Amino acid sequence: MCAQIRTMAATKNEDVRVAISQNRITDSGLRMTAPRRQLIEILAESERPLSVEDLSQRSKGKFDLVTIYRNLEVFRELGIVEVILLENGKNLFELTGEHDHSHHIVCRHCLKAERIEFCMGGELERYASSRGFSNLSHTIEVFGECPDCETKG
């Protein structure tokens, strides 16, 4: 019963994030196309951030990579996705909620990413401000080896 309640809550949260994302698109004057709808749904259903390749695979090849990249850029500009820059220069994408901001712990081997539920960026931005910097933002990701990959290696 508890698992069923958790599943229902997760589904409701996914539905809310999908609705918020779709509203941001239409409010910006853009159309809600089939690729946009499906990419948002794939991101909402995922328990982890996804790469472009993951999105292509989960869409069963319905969209070419250019379509995926183009829509992810629109999503980023509208604040629908958060981009996680990996050490190798690739990106992972995660659907965000309203005013959502997070950081991640990322495995260097399997690219599993977990959210860090707190942010110390404010302290870093205050320090940068005290040094005369303005128009500040931050990106913080922590890289390492996850327990699964550690036991394999």
Characterise the protein shown here.
The protein is an alpha+beta fold. It has two domains: 1-98, Winged helix-like DNA-binding domain superfamily/Winged helix DNA-binding domain (Arc Repressor Mutant, subunit A); 101-153, Dna Ligase, domain 1 (2-Layer Sandwich), CATH 3.30.1490. Helices cover 48% and strands 15% of the residues. The protein has six helices and five strands; from the N terminus they run H-H-H-H-E-E-E-E-H-E-H. The protein has helices at 2-27, 34-45, 52-58, 65-77, 121-130, 147-152; strands at 81-85, 91-95, 103-107, 113-116, 141-144. Strand 1 and strand 2 form a beta hairpin. Helix 1 (2-27) runs antiparallel to helix 2 (34-45). The longest helix is centred in the N-terminal third of the chain and has 26 residues, at 2-27. The radius of gyration is 17 Å and the shape is globular.
Distance linking N and C termini:
38 Å
CATH topology call of the largest domain: Arc Repressor Mutant, subunit A
How helix-rich are the residues, as a percent range? 40-55%
**Count of individual beta strands:** 5
Q: Overall 3D geometry?
A: globular
Topology:
Elements: H1 2-27, H2 34-45, H3 52-58, H4 65-77, E1 81-85, E2 91-95, E3 103-107, E4 113-116, H5 121-130, E5 141-144, H6 147-152
Parallel strand pairs: 3-5
Antiparallel strand pairs: 1-2, 3-4
Helix pairs in contact: 1-2
